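Quick log. Single chain, no ligands specified.
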Amino acid sequence: MNLFAKAKDLGIQTEFIDGHGHPHVTAADALKVIFDALPPQAARQLIEGPVVVRQGHKAQTTLLPAARFPVRWEVRSGASMVAGETQGGAIEWPDGLPVGVHRLRLTDAAGKSEEVPLVSAPKAAFGGDFDRGWLLAVQLYGIRSTHNWGMGDFTDLAELIELAHKLGADGVGLNPLHALFDDQPGDCSPYSPNSRLFLNALYIDVDAIPEFSQDAVHAVADTTPRLRQSETVDYVAVAALKWPALRAAFKAFKKAGSAERRADFEVFRDQRGALLAHFACFEVLRHKFKAPWWEWPAEWRQPDEAACAKLRKGPDGGEVEFVEFVQWNADRQLAACKARADELGMKVGLYLDVAVGVQSNGFDAWNEQGAISRMLGVGAPPDPLAPAGQDWGLAGYNAIGLEQRYFEPFRQMLQASMRHAGAIRLDHVMGLKRLYLVPRGFGPREGVYVPMPFEAMLAVTALESDANQCVVIGEDLGTVPEGFRDATRDWGIWSYLVMMFERGEGGAFHGVDHYQPNALVTFNTHDLATYAGWRHFNDLKQKRALGFDPGESDDDRWHALTMLDQVLQQAGIQDNDFDAIAEFLARTKSRLMAIALEDLLELRDQPNIPGTIDQHPNWRRRMPLCIDEIASQVDIEGLKEATRQRSHVKA
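-> predicted structure:
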């Protein structure tokens, strides 16, 4: 079978029409790299793929004609088993299968057996136990305060929760908090993580660790005043302070930690189990070998329980425990923020963002080498915004590996993301259905669309959403496959609606009634202009100054402003300041609304400009005010009036 015939059999789309309407055919040598990067899979004859059984639905799955009847089936979950036999072409699943991911084994009359995952899922994802609310959207790293060490931390987050509640919001929305590489603090994009399973240690408030004393790290008092005053986050300097301070705190904990703290540390280690142990070993090995994991000595290129246990008992055992100590403190500080939001009765609490992939040389890719292909980069085909296509430099899941692991890597990622969240946003949620994968060494034009087991991915998402009582919002912007949104809505996954993009014929903004209920609505995103910047053409000026075509002329912007004024007036809103935008969005039926802190403060500079690296301070820009000064600079009464239809605090 040639490569293109094999691709067709697997549903891999080697030919596509790009955003310009031009046809593309993936080169054979690029396709070979893609196949070499995927785990081997034996051809199936009895069943096509994973089975989904949905509570409240009559569920059947059809066997392929190659089966010889009768066919016996067994559904195993741990030690329990449900079994049966079918004489015909379909199995009708019994009611009452426990929720979870189970092993389905089929054996036909000829003795041929095959095993696939069976996902028994709730009818839909958790829908939230509230009517309508709104969230304060913040880039946590950029928060300025009188106590932090030059970037926002979890104590600042607790204060943000207090501020958001005072403003009438039901939660705080954050950039991804994923673990990055601690020895590369300058590579600070939260969307390019080392691991989506653990937290970025630089968000820890070291002063809040009971065992820490600033006397142990004298540089803190000398350096923090300068870092607090900086206009941008100096991650290298912050890391140079925080990591020695965390080590000092660990040393003090080992020497004189309270019995209560020691017991809680053990609880955390038990909760996170093998994943935490593997992550700690990986971090120690990464620092030891100073090379990508595939260049490590052979014994460490795969995670191994016995090898990790040996590492813990050897000279590096203290380093392994230090990594766990750091993650414990990060987890407990974030948990305290969630607890405070719960005390205040906030309907959502924390709304956390989840990156679409991970660094190929990071922990997740090492720990799940079958389910995550390091030789394939997630990206997008050419379109008007990126004529050459995009390779985001991230490794993503593949269907074969996930099915062979019974979706455990995906479940673990969801569980980690939902651990302290009332809602999460899945970046590029279309990846649940298909991923555009670019083979390493080739350009974005040579990528292919590789299908995912969409129904099973939705079912697993709903399963974890329901178990963790966490709303799931899918970032469904850009090129969306036909029927995709119908399927996600049917499973209770919310849409992500950006007012800037919700426009129709002639550039007219859609009215209030256009917005669907199960969605998060916002004026912009962290990659778009602030409202004040948009009204004053700052984004166009910035991009032109950097030598970029902004894709919009001044005349286009004037037209957009006219269209915006028209839709506001149609809604009976006469002003066009940001309170007017907030009032418009608050009137929509969408159950969640996000307001960026930059817009409340009427800032004009765009937080991030996609496509730039050093030309713009992406992921570094800080707020101009300390957190305790923000309330005095916001027209709180005007905001309460604008959001009165969905605020718990009335004007």
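The longest strand covers residues 113-121.
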